[in-house]
Amino acid sequence: MTWQVEVAPERCIASGMCAGIAPDLFTLDGTHSRPVHGEVTAGDERALDAADICPAMAITVRENGEEIGPRP
């Protein structure tokens, strides 16, 4: 099972926090972050942590189409 990870480029401010805590999941690409792969192994808490700490709330994690991150 996998989770889908997306970064909204219109909201991303390239703080680098996501790439800092999960460099194998996120990379900075010019002025925005992007997922290295569109899917990560389900249960990889680093994806949820990155969504939680994103200052622009630009990262979304979904499981079977349902948003599970960022967490409230």
Compact description:
Helix content is 19%, strand content 36%.
Q: Layout of SSEs?
A:
Blueprint: E1 2-7, H1 17-21, E2 26-29, E3 32-35, E4 39-41, H2 45-53, E5 59-63, E6 66-69
Antiparallel strand pairs: 1-4, 1-5, 2-3, 5-6
Largest sheet: 4 strands, antiparallel
Query: Helicity level, as a percent range?
Result: 10-25%
- Biggest sheet strand order reads 4-1-5-6
- Give the strand tally: 6
H/E series? EHEEEHEE
β-sheet strand percentage:
35-45%
Average pLDDT, to the nearest integer?
Answer: 97
Structural class: alpha+beta
**Low-confidence spans: pLDDT under 50, at least 5 residues?**
none
Distance between the termini: 23 Å
The shape is: globular
3D structure, described in words:
- The protein contains 2 helices and 6 strands.
- The protein is of the alpha+beta class and 72 residues long.
- The strands form 2 sheets. The chain has a 4-stranded antiparallel beta sheet with strand order 4-1-5-6. It has a two-stranded antiparallel ribbon with strand order 2-3.
- It is globular, with a radius of gyration of 11 Å.
- 26% of the residues are buried.
- The model has no long low-confidence stretch (mean pLDDT 97).
